[in-house]
Amino acid sequence: MVGGRAPIRTLTILCVSKLTDVPKRILIGRALRSDRLGETLLPKRIALPVFASDPLSSVAYAPGEVLLVLSIAGVSAYHFSPWIAVAVVVLMFTVVASYRQNVREYPSGGGDYEVATTNLGPKAGLTVASALLVDYVLTVAVSISSGIENLGSAVPFVVEHKVLCAVAVIVLLTLMNLRGVKESGKLFAIPTYVFVAGVFIMIAWGAFRGLVLDDTMRAPTADYEIKPEHQGLAGFALVFLLLRAFSSGCAALTGVEAISNGVPAFRKPKSKNAATTLALMGGLAVTMFCGIIALAMITKVRMAEVPGKDLFHNGVPLGSDYVQNPVISQVAEAVFGHGSFLFMILAAATALVLFLAANTAYNGFPLLGSILAQDRYLPRQLHTRGDRLAFSNGIVLLAGAAALLVVIYGADSTRLIQLYIVGVFVSFTLSQIGMVRHWNRHLAKEKDPNKRRHMIRSRAINTFGAFFTGLVLVVVLVTKFTHGAWVALLGMCIFYATMTAIRRHYDRVAEEIAAPETPNDDSVRPSRVHSIVLVSKIHRPTLRALAYAKLMRSHTLEALSINVDPAETKALKEEWERRGITVPLKVLDSPYREITRPIIEYVKNLRRESPRDVVSVIIPEYVVGHWYEHLLHNQSALRLKGRLLFTPGVMVTSVPYQLDSSEAAKKRARRRSEWNAPGAVRRGPVEKPRRAKEQNKKETSRKG
Amino acid sequence: MVGGRAPIRTLTILCVSKLTDVPKRILIGRALRSDRLGETLLPKRIALPVFASDPLSSVAYAPGEVLLVLSIAGVSAYHFSPWIAVAVVVLMFTVVASYRQNVREYPSGGGDYEVATTNLGPKAGLTVASALLVDYVLTVAVSISSGIENLGSAVPFVVEHKVLCAVAVIVLLTLMNLRGVKESGKLFAIPTYVFVAGVFIMIAWGAFRGLVLDDTMRAPTADYEIKPEHQGLAGFALVFLLLRAFSSGCAALTGVEAISNGVPAFRKPKSKNAATTLALMGGLAVTMFCGIIALAMITKVRMAEVPGKDLFHNGVPLGSDYVQNPVISQVAEAVFGHGSFLFMILAAATALVLFLAANTAYNGFPLLGSILAQDRYLPRQLHTRGDRLAFSNGIVLLAGAAALLVVIYGADSTRLIQLYIVGVFVSFTLSQIGMVRHWNRHLAKEKDPNKRRHMIRSRAINTFGAFFTGLVLVVVLVTKFTHGAWVALLGMCIFYATMTAIRRHYDRVAEEIAAPETPNDDSVRPSRVHSIVLVSKIHRPTLRALAYAKLMRSHTLEALSINVDPAETKALKEEWERRGITVPLKVLDSPYREITRPIIEYVKNLRRESPRDVVSVIIPEYVVGHWYEHLLHNQSALRLKGRLLFTPGVMVTSVPYQLDSSEAAKKRARRRSEWNAPGAVRRGPVEKPRRAKEQNKKETSRKG
């Protein structure tokens, strides 16, 4: 598809060590072969689960959150829940409709960040980026906590050791992503479709039992009474509570923007397929959300914010030992029966989808990071793929922050959700405002009335989207600020400040190193090269370095040795003469057995004598295979190199000598280069502009 | 004194950061100026405190240990203590007499390790080295624990938080040595002489009060009764107990060997001065030891192994809250009066001398390490001075092991002493056996009857020394093995095994890289150099790298860029042409935005096409000042360099470009190079053989 690959790509099968193999196989099956999914684009049926596991999985906790907040005003407030569901549905349709515009107009995968940057300027873009980064952290924390709670409804042990299990899942996902497990379509497709199918079967079977068979289905909590924290709320307080419930329900919308970042990974026509997938996702999500709320009402699910205190059974509070199961599992229990096969399957699929949603953040984080790196808000090396170290830092940062939140909030998804959504809606709102600006700009230039009509329609959608999401953002901020939203805002500020500082640094450096237009103003032009080969003993590495140095035909060439041990120096000189090595050997004294300082001083002196000369220091270097071997070799060379770099007019050359043991490290390095960066699938291959490609070919043929 | 210094030595004043300045000033005064003590050799009056703070300070705990062990058989056993003191004195004289031979015959500073290696072979030498390394760890642990106990007799808070304070002192000493505080003569002289003077005043004043004034001086514990753990010990059991008490008393001998490692630091005549200092030290130590034991008997000091259980006051056990003060402080209290000025001074001086003794180990450890490194038992870089990193590892290892012991043994000097001494006497015994061999070898060649007589006398001394110290070693092993000596033996084995493994590695590598005698058997000789300058953008670093590369006159030269971003690549090419850069630019495609892999493949291809060519990869490198800046630059270059080193037939050249911020790092590096390696004072400057020096001068003049 894309011409001019790097020459000969060795498709080695991923070398997975035995140790980490087992959990991976358990979690993701055998689909590990390096089938280079990155080279195959995603069809809609695969793209849907890959990108939508996050928003779809959020129906596992969003309905429950709505009921939880309503319960503050007592069970009677539950009858507001359909209205809240309607509001969420309207919001979902608005957001999906808006984002269908986004993916059509900005298909490059830059998502909200690109839209905001292009239309509202870099500050808005950076705000969006900060919001999304925080959002990724929270996606991990919330999804895993909720997954643990869902798994706990089937396996009580898990919920009894909630924090421990949640942290264990974070660690597992982190290790998987550090080792470079590639997202695979199958991996996402199976649990996601099982989950979706399970929820739909549940809704259908529930409707059938309720409406046709006229069964009474009762949730396990149906008999409990709720002691309202505020009796008979009315007026402003009631509105505030409803708005809070709505804010919580908006958790169902998280992850919608993922598709807009993943357009390049879709099959052609990319934008159209992405837009269709968005619509599909929205449809599925609202149906599931409403279905679960409806079933919860029918089966009389009772939930409370502080279940041990506010839930009563026969007038007795349930006590702090009581574990409140998620709505979805309570409903499943009512519909399918406790411990039934379908109940277990649904619980497992729910947990799995939630963990996959968390994994989505592990992929989205570096993806966004690479885009930010391109704009120099993050270290450059994040931009290129396969830099394991750079990605690792990002992954560890993400996991560390998520684990911290999980521990602080006791892996309680309800408390974590208070922090969530702020970031999402900041990004939604700014992106939609950006789209409005986008249309305004285009409308100013467009003359074709047909296209204008289309644009005006799109602008209307985005305007409504901007207005609605902005309103929700305000509602979320107002209703949740003290409940934890401030933590998310603080996180955003930290990201924003860090990225601004990095960008400022890069700008300063770029200015400093900018090439002058007139080539001659760069002080004195170098005229001659004085080469120095550092010698400690005569052995193969030294001989090789000498041979290479002679080839370089520098203006002068000498060997330099430091006299640390007089006996050794004497032996060196004798052997030098005996072998008839033609390069002159110079010996520097070092009464304090230092190596670095005499060499640095010598080089500085050379430069002082003839400032226009360049000094080339050639260092024979051992290449060993293990880190502990590294401790035993090259340490002086390393230190010396570090110091030489600060000396102006010097070039430092390493002539490596590969010891036998270096084979081990070579293999390790090769394996590392086969590493799959997280987010590779979502990013899709690089698309090259036609012109550059052609020019490139010309260039290559001319030179090659 | 030593000719041919490194050219121009900048004597920058040590830049000590504000933060760590305060504790240092408190602990060691202002004597920090970089007055290059290493260049001035030590007169006897300074050498004595520098080398003898360890053995002299051990009289602070050795007498108490004797009483402690005797107390097992009840207070009646205390009357054996003078006899034990006599045995310790005889042993001390033997050891001092023996070591006076050592310093005369082996003045190079190799100490026991050198004597054992030369005369008994490398395995014996390595055993001695292992023993000494363990000994250093224990010196730190025991001295600091004892110092804390002595300080605690004046400042109760300290002894109430014993472990914490001991670890704090270890951390402080470690930081001081990591930063490179130089041992200074004054630093050692003042507290050591105050301590010695204090003890002598105490003995004299005690004798005066006791014999002339006929005062009754009573230690604070004089009224306590001891409940013997074994009533009426007799026969073998009693002998065993006395031997154990003697073993504990032998703690007074630790550190005697330090002088034999420090001969090069003495003023000339080095050996004679060292021998005199040894005699002085021995004389002072035994006088103080006997004086303290005598005063303890007169003032009726009562000590027990488990004071809370075995000490009674009016028939009631003292209970676990009772803190047993060291003998020296109890005696001082009896002689000077509790809380008196002299009492406080002596307590402070004792603690300080003990901490200095611990610091001695921080200096001796790297000193021994450097000798071992010379023989390739430890990483090479320990041999050269000023390698901060190498020394740091050693210091941290020493401190970590000592802190571990302190924590495990609750900073209880009595329990730690059980581990001590084994190492010392292993080293004593092997060294003395080695000396006997030494004399045998020399006697076989020597004809002069005068010299022969002298040698025979020396051999007799060393033979007696070997016999006596060997006997003590057996006694110590037998009486203390189960009390903890096994831990010390285990430590020795670990050091021995590690050093053997390192030596084996170096030997294997040396064999692998040994230069062949016939110069032509090293596969294919290189014929041409193909130079590649890596380019990402046109800026000053790139231009500099291109200019330098052109100077090198390699056979072919091209610039290489990786197409990660088509737009950037296009801009690069346009600017390349616009500027009329004569070096041809080659662009490699990288559909996955990798950098390393395409370059490695390209280089490998070049090598495949013409295997006799050498590829020179020239990388423009930014030099920045702070570690966080480093994260933002050069990461791709670093990774690439790492991979290229594994590719045969490649040389990797860095062309550094110093950014403005690199000034900070430059200063830091310079400061680091001014760093004083611990042990520098003890080691003395390198002595060069006459011949090598002359040859050197000739060489330098010929080339220079």
UniProtKB/TrEMBL annotation, chains A, B:
State the superkingdom.
Bacteria
Q: How does it sit in the membrane?
A: Multi-pass membrane protein
The UniProt entry's coiled-coil ranges are none
Keywords in alphabetical order: Membrane, Transmembrane, Transmembrane helix
| Regions that span the bilayer | 80-99, 126-148, 154-175, 187-208, 233-256, 277-298, 341-368, 389-411, 417-439, 460-478, 484-502
Q: Can you say where in the cell this protein is located? A: Membrane
Asked if the record carries the keyword Transmembrane, the reply is: yes
Identify the stretch(es) annotated as Disordered. 661-704
**UniProt biased composition (Basic and acidic residues):** 684-704
Its GO CC terms are: membrane
Q: Which GO terms describe its molecular function?
A: transmembrane transporter activity
- Classification via PANTHER family: POTASSIUM TRANSPORTER KIMA
Designated name of the protein: Putative CONSERVED INTEGRAL MEMBRANE ALANINE AND VALINE AND LEUCINE RICH PROTEIN
Which organism encodes this protein? Streptomyces formicae
